[in-house]
């Protein structure tokens, strides 16, 4: 009897364990299905986002290409319109120039006829007078062309001079920058340099009067010989206050020793006299006559 009760209890426990295992298996399967569904949902969402991003990139690329094409077309249209306007303007200028040349030729012909009639009325040589008149007009044209040529030459010379001055100014600035870099501690301002020099002299040099007076400054040309004459023998390589001050003045003088004007050889320094040229031309023509 007890054995049967134990067997039934064991069977009951096994059934409960089997039900729990089945329940656990069902819950695990359900969780796996939910995880699979969540994975599919996320994957679908990622694919949609990637597809949307790809479509957006394609749309943006197409929009950029379309804008570039539109800009290129507008540029070509503007170039065609500009060319058309230029052709129209040149045509109008050419027509105006042709009309002016015709009017000028007509006026010259009219003046020639009037001159011929006046010469015939006076009983002069028509061919000679007309020839001389044409020679005079040709001479005036040559003089005008010569003036224009001289003007262009002067403009070219002035431009070359300005370029030379600009290059010299640039070279001067570069040299000053190089000197400033090489000096290492030198000051660009002469007053500040002298102030610092006096401070150095006050600290390092001993003088009976305490501080050297300002009147002891000398010029660069007269400073070095005086320093050589007054320097004592026992000092060796030590510098006196005069040497320090003269070196500062010599540095300033070297900084200013840069040519201010370019050296332009040849006819750059010659002035062209138009009256002399006219006299030479007239004398040559008189010799030909």
TrEMBL record:
Residues 223-269 are annotated as: Disordered. Keywords: Coiled coil. This is Uncharacterized protein. Residues 16-50 form a coiled coil. It comes from Callipepla squamata (Scaled quail).
């Amino acid at each position: 009897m007890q054995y049967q009760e134990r067997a039934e209890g064991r069977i009951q426990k096994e059934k409960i364990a089997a039900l729990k295992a089945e329940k656990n298996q069902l819950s695990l399967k359900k969780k796996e299905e939910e995880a699979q569904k969540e994975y599919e949902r996320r994957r679908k969402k990622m694919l949609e986002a990637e597809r949307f991003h790809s479509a957006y990139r394609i749309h943006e690329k197409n929009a950029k290409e379309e804008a570039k094409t539109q800009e290129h077309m507008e540029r070509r249209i503007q170039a065609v319109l500009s060319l058309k306007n230029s052709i129209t303007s040149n045509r109008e200028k050419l027509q105006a120039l042709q009309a002016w040349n015709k009017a000028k030729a007509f006026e010259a012909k009219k003046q020639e006829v009037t001159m011929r009639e006046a010469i015939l009325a006076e009983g002069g040589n028509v061919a000679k007078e007309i020839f001389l008149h044409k020679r005079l007009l040709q001479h005036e044209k040559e003089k005008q062309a010569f003036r224009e040529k001289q003007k262009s030459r002067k403009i070219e010379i002035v431009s070359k001079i300005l370029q030379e001055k600009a290059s010299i100014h640039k070279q001067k600035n570069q040299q000053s920058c190089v000197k400033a870099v090489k000096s290492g501690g030198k000051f660009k301002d002469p007053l500040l340099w002298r102030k610092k020099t006096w401070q150095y002299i006050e600290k390092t040099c001993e003088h009976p009067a305490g501080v050297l007076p300002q009147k002891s400054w000398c010029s660069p040309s007269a400073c070095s010989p005086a320093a050589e004459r007054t320097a004592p023998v026992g000092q060796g390589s030590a510098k006196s206050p005069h040497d320090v001050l003269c070196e500062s003045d010599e540095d300033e003088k070297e900084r200013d020793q840069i040519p201010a004007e370019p050296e332009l050889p040849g006819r750059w320094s010659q002035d062209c006299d138009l009256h002399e040229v006219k006299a030479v031309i007239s004398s040559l023509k008189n010799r030909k006559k």
